[in-house]
Hints:
Layout: H1 3-22, E1 25-31, E2 42-45, E3 48-58, E4 64-70, E5 83-87, E6 96-100, E7 113-116, H2 121-128, H3 133-141, H4 144-155, H5 160-175, H6 178-187, H7 192-214
Amino acid sequence: xxxxxxxxxxxxxxxxxxxxxxxxxxxxxxxxxxxxxxxxxxxxxxxxxxxxxxxxxxxxxxxxxxxxxxxxxxxxxxxxxxxxxxxxxxxxxxxxxxxxxxxxxxxxxxxxxxxxxxxxxxxxxxxxxxxxxxxxxxxxxxxxxxxxxxxxxxxxxxxxxxxxxxxxxxxxxxxxxxxxxxxxxxxxxxxxxxxxxxxxxxxxxxxxxxxxxxxxxxxx
Length: 220
């Protein structure tokens, strides 16, 4: 084999590898309800669109199958251990389907991988065991009603004790985010500030009560 031919073969292999990496990533998500999703609706991740729905239909196991296509430049974020949640339509907008990372060290998803979708963002938090400030902010931006549903689901869970301090801390952080929070409040959630203040006060009362119960009773 001549040096020139070897060089061309190497270049061809690298070019093919780049095309494979840059190509879109087709996936299938099984959910209980599509909530009105249809082809062309957005696939979201970390607050931005990373793909689109290509088809919605019924699966073989009394589930709904949502076929999605992830943009080639975004496929590096999709891990096999991740999951999807279908978001309700808010403010006249179309519903979306959102990807969430569960284990960022897991293997990358392969084409046509199947995912079991979760019913709510709260289920994502429960499975992962933590909440990020960005996810909490996006959950609130979907509307006070849905935000309250997520919190109520957390309250009913056995893991509530480890989440209440997280939510209180993140809520307090979001409350002081000046211009960003003002924009959110003015445009979408005029009642959110009171909701957060009440929520934080409730948590603070719980913390104070638990602290008093832990203190030893003075001897008579």
